[in-house]
Amino acid sequence: MNNSVTNTVRLLGAGLRALLVLTLVTGVIYPLVVTGIAQGLFHDKANGSEIKADGKVVGSSLIGQQYDLPLKKGQDTPDPDLKWFQGRPANGLGANSVNTQYKLILSGATNLSADSGAVKGRCPDKPADKTLCAQVLAAKAAVVMDNSVPGYAVRPSDVPADAVTSSGSGLDPAISPQYAELQVHRVAAKNGLSVAQVEKLVKEHTQGRTLGFIGEPQVNVLELNIALKDLVAKK
Questions:
Q1: DSSP line for the chain
Q2: 74-78, 137-141, 155-159: which has the minimum mean pLDDT?
Q3: Which domain holds residue 56?
Q4: Is residue 35 situated within a structural domain?
């Protein structure tokens, strides 16, 4: 009987010591080491890849923002503020929250398949509502209309895929150089700048493939719009 009690106490003591040691190692030492390495070697990324303008944080390079006009009475969705470069559509976020301004970190896609609304592999002229085809055709028409300015007409064939489709997360912060260049004439006209000035901004903010071969070239919309704001202020 005494041996049984002694063994039980010994096992409980060993288990308690193991719990304390593992708690210290995995709950205190390991997080501190990882945090220290992250802060020392990857300080910017560890703190959310923050982007600052005028001395304050205005966003993250990893999360897109929308550039819209104030919501008007009777509107369900605001109109885009066309003096700014526009990012990718954010379809899908509305299904998860009333948030459409990225004030919360929400990730969500439409979950519509590639053939949603398609007939024989192609989108008909009048696809059914709430299908991917309907969203793409409406977005393409808006891109053509918004970016066609006097002396520069956008054709439907000029519109790249990322201008009319949302990313899987709905939070994509970047657009293709092709979509950025398509917006140059409109942004220049709305801000009283020359096309050459705005084209130069786009080129300066075009990032190449990671390590030269991973991914595609892209333009971070927030960083580009901050540079645009600074350029307009210098007029």
A1: -HHHHHHHHHHHHHHHHHHHHHHHIIIIIHHHHHHHHHHHH-HHHHTT-EEEETTEEEEETTS----BPPPPTT-SSPPB-TTS------TTGGGT-S--SSSS---------TTTT-BTTB--SSPPTTSHHHHHHHHHHHHHHHH-BTTB---GGG--GGGTS--SSS---EE-HHHHHHTHHHHHHHHT--HHHHHHHHHHTEE--BTTTBS--EEEHHHHHHHHHHHHHT-
A2: 74-78
A3: 51-88+135-233
A4: yes
